[in-house]
Amino acid sequence: MNVTDAVAEILAEEGVEHLIGFPSNPLFDDNAAEEAGIRPIVVRQERTGAHILDGIARITSGDQVEAFACQHGPGTENSVGGIAQAYAESAPIVALPAGYSRAKTNTDPKFSSLVNYQAVTKTTEQLTDPEATEETIRRAFQAARNGRQRPGLVEIPKDVFYEEVDDLDYEPTTSTRSGPDPEAVSDAVDALLDADLPVINAGQGVHYAKGWEPLQELAELLEAPVATTLNGKSAFPEDHPLSLGAGSKSEPRQLNHFIHEADVLFGIGCSFTKTAYGITPPTEDNTLIHSTNDPGDVDKDYKSDLAVIGDAKLVLEAIVDEVRSRVDDTDFGRYDDVTTEIATIESEWLDDWADVLESDETPINPYRVVHELNETVDKDEVVATADAGNARDFMAPFFEVTEPLSYLGWGKTTQLGYGLGLMMGAKLTHPEKVCVHVMGDGAIGMTGMDFETAAREDIPVLEIVLNNFEMASYDTPFSGHYADFAESMGGYGERVEDPDNVADAIERGVEKTKEGTPVLLEFLTAKYTELSRPDLE
């Protein structure tokens, strides 16, 4: 067999179900992936392909590692953003871009994935020896699956694809988890038990570790409120009395209050990175406990008092066991006071925002769209995300999620248009779910053509476009009739101008996706960009 067929067979052995990207790459062009039982999906823009794989990885808690392929040269140049996003979100994928033939590899100005992708991948290699095919691809999967999961990349020069190799004897890679140091667990529990008001901050590591149950158990044991990061959103049910919601550029008032009231802040599965889109730990009179599976995050931006390194689920289980071993019939006597305070602050905050969330103004207030979406969809069957900019700020505090992995947020950076690929990946994995993405004019301009991919490949996502004919708060006018565009691409499109029709349109959109049709609902919205209400401060 040649290297192309060998790589396809290795992908199948690794459990890859989808090869997503763009020709020209022999894995697509020679039908090698399809013949190996892998579904090829060609996208309209390379980075959207990486975003789809990112969505599959994240909705499966990193269990499903899929493959990306693209053309040498322009394809690799055009793909950097998608791979970089997966790297930022710790999403495991294996990228297999083509490279220039070995005779041209070092000829300027040839774009080299080996050189240029090193900053946005966990491992980057070039396959130059056909006999090293098995070990080289294995290393990429091993890197992607273990430790802090991130993309592994192997560039395959064009001529290498057609070299002959011996029959394979490939053993697929496995995933491992690291447990915490018992002494570190004991020290963390000392601090948590001595605290008057511990608060937990849960990040995406809880999702990857599937640590949702021990997280809730620990919160209830300690009678401790729980906040999440934006990409940890849905790690803790937001209808739980101890929930504070998700931290972001816009966040619930109760979250901000309790983060600054805490005398011990326990971050689990998070990086504590300084960012406008995350939680800022108080700098005085508090103890910071940081638990992550990546030691490089500890003390990176904020000095920790205690660190616990390990898989989030293993850490949480160890801490729960330690707490239970020390305290019988645990009752710290603060549960009623804490939950009442959370509920009171939240109620006042929602009352203050009611005029916006329930606004009858036209053009439609974008918060009204988010409010109706929150009230309309079944939280047991939804997976949601919002794109960068105002869509994120509308959704993060006001779209409540109750099930693990029912929201795919993002961390420290993101590209406009990222959410379309995320939801396509989620829908491929969970066709029974309603996968909804809220975006604005800027985002649809970046990746909107891949709505056609959703129609062509039978991936019935629900796209909501908040069309205010401009780019966020910038004085940059945009225009377009996106509902008509959706119809022309083979999906269902609807333009809504009356706020009283918002909920009905969402219900119709949900039903259309259940019938197998991708949907784009275009809401003509006001230029409302306030992140806070200065009149209510």
TrEMBL record:
Stored CDD domains: TPP_PYR_POX_like
Repressor is among the record's keywords: no
Gene3D superfamilies (alphabetical): 3.40.50.970, TPP-binding domain (3.40.50.1220)
Domain Thiamine pyrophosphate enzyme TPP-binding: 387-522
Name of a matching Pfam family: TPP_enzyme_M
Lipoprotein is among the record's keywords: no
Record's keyword terms, sorted: Thiamine pyrophosphate
Residues of the Thiamine pyrophosphate enzyme central domain: 186-319
Family recorded in the similarity comment: Belongs to the TPP enzyme family.
Protein's UniProt name: Thiamine pyrophosphate-requiring protein
Species whose genome carries this gene: Haloplanus ruber
